[in-house]
Amino acid sequence: MARPTCLTNRIAALRSDAGRMTQKDLADRVGVTRQTVNAIELGKYSPSLEVAFRIARALGVPLEHVFQYPQMSLATEHKSAS
Amino acid sequence: MAFKEKSTLAMTGILVLVFGWYFAIVVGELTRSPVRDVAWAGLMIPVVVGLVVLAAIAHAAIAISAPSQAGREDERDRSLEQRGAQVGGYVLAAGTVGGLALAVVDAPTFWIAQALLAALVLGEVAKGTTVLALYRWGI
Predict the structure, then answer these.
(1) Does A45 touch chain B (CB under 8 A)?
(2) What range does the domain containing B106 cover?
(3) Three-state DSSP state, A8
(4) ipTM score here?
């Protein structure tokens, strides 16, 4: 049913670093619901590029500090696509 | 639970409840009288009224329970809705083909109507169930 995402993130840690920012605080800044922030943190939902950038900006760090995509996953997907 | 998730849960439950009641009555009548005597068209009015009233009550209750979330939706809600609509569309299409097949073989209007109605309902239920599953297990 659900396609497991290879995308990982450090949103929870970065929220904590940013002065105990809650999921609701981040959601309000980004313009999504708190449940969506929770789903992204748990790897249940991969956000659009625009929301990903807004999250990074709200946390005050570059995008690649928030989201990571393992090299191995990229190689595996490239192999299965060809 | 997000507002849209609660809304989808409520609407799917209401659909199952109302159309479960409708089909239970229609099937009950079928066991007692011939197809042509089953007054299914008249049942549509209480079904539609019931759907509208229950949906309004459910959404008012959901909105009152969390006023700040009322009506809010974001890209995840829309994305899940689209996935659900895709699945529901397949079910609706399959049911419609079934209804057309009944028309081709000159089946009574009653059976064609029930097949098309069942396709509509099952399509919506499949859509709602898919959306709820995606909310739980991710996309």
Answers:
(1) yes
(2) 3-137
(3) strand
(4) 0.77
